[in-house]
Specification:
heterodimer; A: alpha/beta; two-stranded parallel sheet; 8 strands; 26% helix; 15% strand; elongated; B: alpha+beta; 8-stranded antiparallel β-barrel; 16% helix; 59% strand
């Protein structure tokens, strides 16, 4: 094989390799469209936590309802929602104290030590309610009822006395946490955890699609006070 | 010693690491003998240190764009030198990059990823002057990603990814008894597979550029 021929083969091989490298298609990530409106309860306003936020959750008091464990329902809800973000848009963690909490969860029979701020919290006669108050681009920081500042911006109230089983309590708490992480709407599909009267504690593919959509959208306000 | 090497190679991935250590020792001895005789060594061990330039791991379409920032890279290559100055061998590398996520006009740092790589390499000289020599290199192997368990694509796709690279090495022409210093520029691609069912990741090739200083003994 002549030297000239070898050089030609090398050049052609090199050009092919370079062409193959430069012509490679990059991996992509495409957010899905929502399965149901994430803003139907907020008048079209989209909200969420700022990207990368570690959201501290505090369970206030203990449920007085025998056989129901609110703390375990909250841990379960945190785990199922934490599994969905693609680039750690949020992470629900257990707060070390009420002073470091961003979300307070309490049973209706236990008075909360958080004041409702400039909005009034008038929950309907529901098994679960989620409350926050946004008067600008950020949710309001709620204060302690006894006075003093807090980092809390979201309150979740559960009426455990109305729920007969732990499974029902789990479903309601997971549903309320869906609101707390940004889903400001209800689904009309009973298989979804964001159905108004949830019967499952596991987010469906429709719930996952809706959350993934809103986590990439530009928010009208954020929940971090 | 040779018999022991063959046995460990058949033994599997753990044994290969042990084999590399034994082989390096053998080659170091061979190189020393060759240097003492004033001849080029048949085998060379070549440690290298360098940087990984910013790398886009995932492009949002629309969605999150995940990029690796400039990172550190350490490696060691073991090559056999053929009479016409062509080389073939194995390169093991470790690289680390912090990650940045960009989406909807905002940007934030998010975790970091480490890469362990093993690749077969081949190089051939393309220009040789009196003081500098330019070589073309090609390598193919696998890259294992460690870390970033909650960041795509690392969360959803396989952790072991095939890679291919082309590189240019600019070396000072040294006497056979001296260590040779080279600047190595490589550009390559790492295959990212499609995510699991329900994942938002579509497969593709991540392009990556690295620059290293290599010392060939």
């Amino acid at each position: 094989m002549s030297r000239q021929y070898r050089m030609r083969v090398r050049r052609v091989a090199g050009a092919l390799c370079v062409g193959a490298l430069l012509g490679c298609e990059s991996p992509t990530a495409t957010r899905p469209a929502f399965a149901y409106s994430p803003t139907s309860l907020t008048g079209g306003l989209l909200y969420r936590w700022p990207g990368g936020t570690r959201v501290s959750v505090w369970v206030e008091g203990t449920s007085n309802t025998p056989g129901l464990d609110l703390s375990s329902a909250v841990r379960r809800a945190s785990a199922v929602w934490n599994a969905i973000p693609d680039v750690r848009e949020f992470e629900l963690v257990t707060a070390s104290s009420i002073g470091s909490a961003n979300i307070i969860v309490y049973d209706q029979r236990t008075a909360t030590s958080i004041a409702e701020g400039s909005c009034s919290f008038t929950p309907s006669n529901a098994a679960g309610s989620t409350f926050f108050c946004a008067t600008g681009p950020r949710a309001e920081r709620l204060s302690l009822a006894a006075g003093g500042a807090s980092l809390v911006s979201v309150l979740i109230r559960v009426d455990a006395g109305r729920l007969a089983t732990q499974e029902r309590l789990d479903a309601v708490v997971v549903h309320e946490f869906g609101h707390a992480v940004g889903i400001g709407g209800h689904s009309d599909d009973t298989a979804d955890v964001m159905f108004a009267a949830p019967i499952t504690a596991q987010p469906s593919t429709r719930d996952v699609r809706t959350l993934r959509f809103l986590l990439g959208a530009v928010a009208d306000f954020t929940l971090l006070p | 010693m040779r018999l022991a090497v063959q046995r460990t190679v058949r033994g599997g991935p753990v044994a290969v690491v042990l084999t590399l250590g034994v082989t390096l020792g053998m080659m170091h001895g061979g190189a020393s003998r060759a240097r003492a005789q004033g001849l080029p060594a048949r085998w060379n061990a070549a440690p290298e240190i360098g940087v990984v330039f910013p790398t886009t791991w995932i492009t949002g379409a629309p969605g999150p764009t995940v990029s690796g920032n400039t990172g550190l890279q350490l490696g060691i290559g073991v090559t056999r030198v053929f009479p016409n100055a062509q080389r073939a061998g194995v390169l093991a590398r470790f690289a680390t990059q912090s990650l940045t996520v960009k989406e909807a006009g905002s940007s934030r740092s998010a975790s970091s990823v480490r890469q362990l790589e093993v690749a077969a390499t081949a190089s051939t000289p393309v220009r040789k002057g009196t003081r500098l020599q330019l070589s073309l290199e090609a390598s193919a192997g696998v890259s294992t990603q460690i870390g970033a368990p909650d960041i795509i694509p690392f969360r959803d796709t396989g952790r072991v990814m095939p890679l291919g690279e082309l590189g240019l090495a600019l070396a000072r022409v040294a006497r056979p008894s001296r260590r040779q210093l080279s600047l190595v520029l490589r550009h390559g691609a790492i295959r990212v597979g499609a995510g699991d069912r329900g994942s938002i990741v579509a497969a593709g090739w991540v392009q990556r550029t690295t620059a290293s200083i290599r010392i060939t003994r």
